[in-house]
Amino acid sequence: MSLQTFLEKSRRYKQNKKQSFTMEIEDFGSLTLVRPTGRFKDSILDYYEDLNKNMRTIGKDEDGKDITEFISFKDLNIKASKLVYLCCPEMQEEEVVKDNGNDNFRVPLEIFGIKVTNIASKILEEFEGVKEKKEVEDDIKN
């Protein structure tokens, strides 16, 4: 493959990544979430890493797959809240932050409570956070 072909493919691949999506949240309505950019572009990978660090294996199921549990549900909710905040421009508005305790990254947790982990999971699913993490690990191996 030529360098030019590689560049074209990589640009097209990046352009085709989903940049935003809207989800319905019970008792709230529609929430639009955008892929983090700039200095926060690694937020999805950071959350995925935090998610893995916050779990421990407690056994195996009948198929030999690991059974896991969360070490700290509180910590998981705080990390999820940060990801949701970084993906939701409306939550970053000064008035919304003030109305929810002036702690930027806790705004989603203040609004949605423990539902924030479900929203963060949807972000991983929609933006392929798991796939991105796998791609990074593969790149490191190569």
Itemize the secondary structure elements and their pairings.
Blueprint (H helix, E strand, L loop, with lengths): L2 H13 L4 E6 L3 E6 L8 H11 L1 E6 L5 E5 L2 H15 L6 H6 L7 H6 L3 H11 L2 H13 L1
Helix pairs in contact: 2-3, 2-7, 3-6
Question: Would you mind describing this structure in some detail?
Answer:
It is a single chain. The protein is of the alpha+beta class and 142 residues long. It has one domain (42-141). 53% of the residues lie in helices and 16% in strands. It has helices at 3-15, 43-53, 73-87, 94-99, 107-112, 116-126, 129-141, and strands spanning 20-25, 29-34, 55-60, 66-70. Helix 2 packs across helix 7 (129-141). It is globular and about 50 Å long.
Summarize the structure.
With 142 residues, the protein is of the alpha+beta class. It has helices at residues 3-15, 43-53, 73-87, 94-99, 107-112, 116-126, 129-141; strands spanning 20-25, 29-34, 55-60, 66-70. The longest helix is centred in the middle third of the chain and has 15 residues, at 73-87.
List keywords for this structure.
globular, two-stranded antiparallel ribbon, 4 strands, 142 residues, alpha+beta, single chain
